[in-house]
């Protein structure tokens, strides 16, 4: 059964939290994201966005990391309703 709450990280509203489901990146970008803590099962919160809306800062594992929309669009998340 497909969970209808699964979306991409770039669509996570500011202030909302999601849980990482999968990373669709390949190669070095995938490795770097994994090294930064973007692993399946990890909670991530959209913290704030730049004036233009790109990049967006995310809170993950106690740190803030900014990602471009292009990179965030390749990270699948499950939006957490109870957080």
Question: How would you characterize this protein structure?
Answer:
With 83 residues, the chain is α+β, with helices and mostly antiparallel strands. The chain has a single domain, classed as SH3 type barrels (Roll), CATH 2.30.30. 16% of the residues lie in helices and 39% in strands. The chain has 2 helices and 6 strands. The protein has a 6-stranded antiparallel beta sheet. β4 and β5 form a beta hairpin. The longest helix is centred in the middle third of the chain and has 9 residues. The radius of gyration is 12 Å and the shape is globular. The model has no long low-confidence stretch (mean pLDDT 90).
Order of helices and strands: EEHEEEHE
Molecular shape:
globular
Query: How many helix segments?
Result: 2
Classify the secondary structure makeup into a structural class: alpha+beta
Number of strands: 6
Q: Assign the CATH topology.
A: SH3 type barrels
In the residues, how many domains can be counted? 1
Head-to-tail CA distance between termini: 23 Å
The fraction of residues assigned to DSSP E strands is 35-45%
CATH architecture assignment name: Roll
Arrangement of strands in the largest sheet: 1-6-2-3-4-5
Give me the CATH superfamily. Ferrous iron transport protein A (FeoA)
Mean pLDDT across all amino acids: 90
The CATH C-level name is Mainly Beta
Report low-confidence residues grouped into runs of 5 or more. none
How would you characterize the largest beta sheet? 6 strands, antiparallel
Which percent bin holds the helix content? 10-25%
Q: Could you tell me the radius of gyration in angstroms?
A: 12 Å
């Amino acid at each position: 059964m497909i969970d209808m709450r699964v979306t991409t990280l770039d669509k996570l509203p500011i202030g909302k939290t999601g849980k990482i489901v999968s990373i669709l990146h390949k190669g070095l970008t995938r490795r770097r994201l994994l090294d930064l803590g973007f692993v399946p099962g990890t909670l991530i919160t959209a913290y704030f966005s730049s004036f233009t809306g790109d990049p967006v800062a995310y809170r993950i594992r106690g740190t803030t990391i900014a990602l471009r929309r292009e990179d965030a669009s390749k990270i699948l998340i499950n939006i957490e309703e109870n957080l």
